[in-house]
Amino acid sequence: MSLPPPPLGQGAGYGVVLGLGIGFAIGMVLVTRQLKKTFGEDNNTTETFMVANRSIGTGLTASAVISSWLYTSALLGSPYLTYSYGIALPLWWAAGQSTMICMFAWIAIQAKRRIPNAHTLLELIRGRYGTVAHLLWIVMALINNLLIFSQMIVGAAAAVSSLTGMNIIAATYLLPAGVVVYTYFGGLRATFLTDYIHTVIIMIILVWLTIQLLTIKEIGSIGALYDALVPLGKKYPVAGNYEGSYLTMTSNQSVWFGIIHVLTNFGVVFLDTGFWQKGFAAEVEAAVPGYILGGNAYFAIPFAFGTIMGLGAQALESTPAFPTYPRRMTAEEVSSGLVLPFVSQAIAGKGGAGAVLVIIFMACTSVSSAELIAISSIFSFDIYRTYFNKKATNKQIIRMSHVGVIGAWLVVSSMATGFYKGGVDLNWLLYFLGILICPALFPTTFALVWKKQTRTAAIVAPLCGFAAGISTWIATAAIEGSASIPALGMAFPCMYATVASTFTPLPITIAVSYLFPDNTFDWPKLAKAIERVEDDEHGQLSAKATHFNYDAYFSPQRVRYMRKMARVALWWGIITFLCQWVLWPIPMYGAYFIMSKGLFTAWVVVSLIWLWIALGIASFYPLIDGGAKMIWMVLRGKKTEPVGEPGDVTPAPSVVSEREKEKESDVVEIDDKKDAF
């Protein structure tokens, strides 16, 4: 059965993918140059390219957090899974990401306390556990980033092709092309700026699409949407849902997906050096509030957008407005992520199709920039600088970062092409991802927060997790019927395998650490061992360079503040998990009821209000939080002092007194008993 003709021509596809890509590339290159002129930010230094001088404020951090999770898989996946399994699904999707983002606030502030000079997650692993563990984590981190990146490209290319008729392989290679240019020149600072611009555009379109769906003549109101959905539970019942209804929270498939999703997302973020770099880039005062604000705001996107667009697709599918009418969408069309393109075309014609094309492009390029930086940082910093040129200068590291950006683009696009040719779609990758990523979750977290985890435990535990996950995956699929590619992509085998790969390492790393303890580890030594890259292009410190001042950074006031914020972040993460993952959905799952019209209306209204709040946090709060002033200064071109964390740097050794040099060698000792977490 052939797809309906694309609503837009190939010219629109190439125009957006190439035209907008080139436009953003040129714009970001110019902005990067202006930032260098205005604030002295030199993207040819490692500190600027990789961690944006550790100077990002709360508003921009929150916006970047939201943008980081605007994967095309989220924008395409939450509507199509809601279409398939009903109203419970988007709540589980949102909780699986919001909880994890709020928990990462704790990781971000702990990184400020333990490894304030780090550029990548893998520096922490090498500093604590040595070469073997470092190499293992390089492999795991690359698997993580490459799979996440290629999964996003697979879904985005399929959607662009369905909307425009553009060749899907061409879309696979061209979607990230413009990103390569501005990431090549601008580094992480360019990533933050483009994240903000992309997020503003995406959020406006999401709000418009949800309102448009509820007000079109075929639906007209929230109550009318409810009325259209009620009979569909009997006509097209959902297996595992209470009475087959789309309007019940008792949905087995949704719960299985929720378990896979939350564990996978914890694994994805805690192993993604791109998220760690954004945490490193945030100011000390911005890390916790930025992640908490962004995490709670992000909840609204899959919750509101998935609910309205996914259920709206069910309601509209039987009307002449729907592109596939009079037939229903095929399973292949649904699992490829085409629900959103089709329903947007139904509610707004070519305008809706164009809007989806734009948000797919924006989401794809926004996440691409972060992934390119992450992969190139691993290549330049953790491979080249660590094993091939230990005395690499700033210039050499940046050159290798540029090589890494281009290489990552070609490798990921080739992987996405391979997945497409092999019949692996977005749905399969969504379910499979956690099996390979989650074994590193607990060992990575313990590396930062638990001083008793030993080198042996850190190496053995994730390997056992891999073995447990893969064997459970294949065995469960075989018991269910067969271990074919379609069967391996089903929810049941993937859920059990993800749980096995996640939790098997936990008792192993604890047991090995206590059976074979190592009591020589010391947090301050680790903090001192990881240094900033402060040389010039010749490898020499100059008067313009800065030297990290441990005394200033670990002042008693700052240490107390970071401890306090670590407690705030930990409790906020726990409370978020309990509210979003336990107290809200589980009682509703066990109640075995179908929503009334009043409850459904309130549910949708709350989701829309939450979406509008997210729009405000993502779009306007960064301007209030210093962004407007920065934009005005950039436009004026007025030169100011270079940005950076206040009080943590001193002039280069060539202009520092002997007394100050002696001070810099001291590290404020942190009380190990109070510093367990």
From TrEMBL:
List all membrane-crossing ranges: 12-31, 51-71, 91-111, 132-160, 166-185, 197-216, 255-276, 297-316, 355-381, 402-422, 428-450, 457-475, 495-516, 568-594, 600-624
Q: Which UniProt keywords apply?
A: Membrane, Transmembrane, Transmembrane helix
On whether Coiled coil is a keyword of this UniProt record, the answer is no
The record ties this protein, via InterPro entries, to: DUR, Na/Glc_symporter_sf, Na/solute_symporter
Region Disordered, as annotated, extends over: 640-677
Ranges of Basic and acidic residues composition bias in the record: 657-677
Quick one: signal sequence residues? none
Which membrane topology describes this protein?
Answer: Multi-pass membrane protein
Instruction: Spell out the GO cellular component terms annotated for this protein, sorted alphabetically and separated by semicolons.
Output: plasma membrane
The record's subcellular locations are: Membrane
GO molecular-function terms, A-Z: urea transmembrane transporter activity
CDD domains per record:
SLC5sbd_DUR3 (cd11476)
A Pfam family for this UniProt protein? SSF
Q: What protein family does this chain belong to?
A: Belongs to the sodium:solute symporter (SSF) (TC 2.A.21) family.
Q: What is this protein identified as?
A: SSS family solute:Na+ symporter
